[in-house]
């Protein structure tokens, strides 16, 4: 296997491992609640959480975190349990 093929295989493996946690807009949760959840679950700063809340409000969704699928699924489960609409992509 050539060096180029090895690099491509490693790059594909990294891409497969890296996923996104996406928050979707809803009309049930307050900005303060969403910000609190993002700070607690995703370890966002208050400013970062507020920016994500506004992006979600205006665009309908926001990527709030990237990482390995297992970690994101755990966080998505917690966020879903408290009433937020999220998806791991």
Explain how this protein is built.
- The structure is a single chain.
- The protein is α+β, with helices and mostly antiparallel strands and 89 residues long.
- The protein has one domain (19-88): Ribosomal Protein L30, Chain: A, CATH 3.30.1390.10.
- 61% of the residues lie in helices and 21% in strands.
- It contains 4 helices and 3 strands, in the order αβααβαβ.
- It has helices at 3-17, 31-42, 46-59, 69-81, and strands spanning 18-24, 61-68, 85-88.
- A 3-stranded antiparallel β-sheet has the order 2-1-3.
- Helix 2 packs across helix 3.
- It is elongated, with a radius of gyration of 16 Å.
Topology:
Layout: H1 3-17, E1 18-24, H2 31-42, H3 46-59, E2 61-68, H4 69-81, E3 85-88
Antiparallel strand pairs: 1-2, 1-3
Helix pairs in contact: 2-3
Helix content: 55-70%
Structural domain tally? 1
Q: What is the 3D shape?
A: elongated
Secondary structure: number of strands: 3
Name the assembly state.
single chain
Strand content bin:
15-25%
Spatial order of the strands in the main sheet? 2-1-3
The CATH homologous superfamily name equals Ribosomal protein L7/L12, C-terminal domain/Adaptor protein ClpS
CATH topology: Ribosomal Protein L30, Chain: A
Spatial extent as radius of gyration: 16 Å
Content-based structural category: alpha+beta
The CATH class: Alpha Beta
Distance between the termini: 31 Å
Order of helices and strands: HEHHEHE
**In CATH terms, what is the architecture?**
2-Layer Sandwich
Q: How many helical stretches?
A: 4
Overall pLDDT, averaged? 91
Low confidence ranges: none
């Amino acid at each position: 296997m050539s060096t180029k093929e090895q690099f491509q295989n490693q790059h594909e493996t990294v891409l497969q491992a890296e996923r996104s946690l996406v928050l979707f807009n809803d009309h049930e949760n307050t900005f303060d609640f969403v910000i609190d959840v993002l700070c607690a679950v995703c370890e966002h700063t208050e400013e970062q959480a507020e920016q994500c809340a506004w992006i979600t409000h205006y665009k309908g969704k926001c990527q709030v975190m990237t990482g390995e699928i297992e970690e994101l699924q755990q966080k998505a489960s917690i966020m879903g349990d408290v009433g937020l609409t999220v998806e791991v992509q």
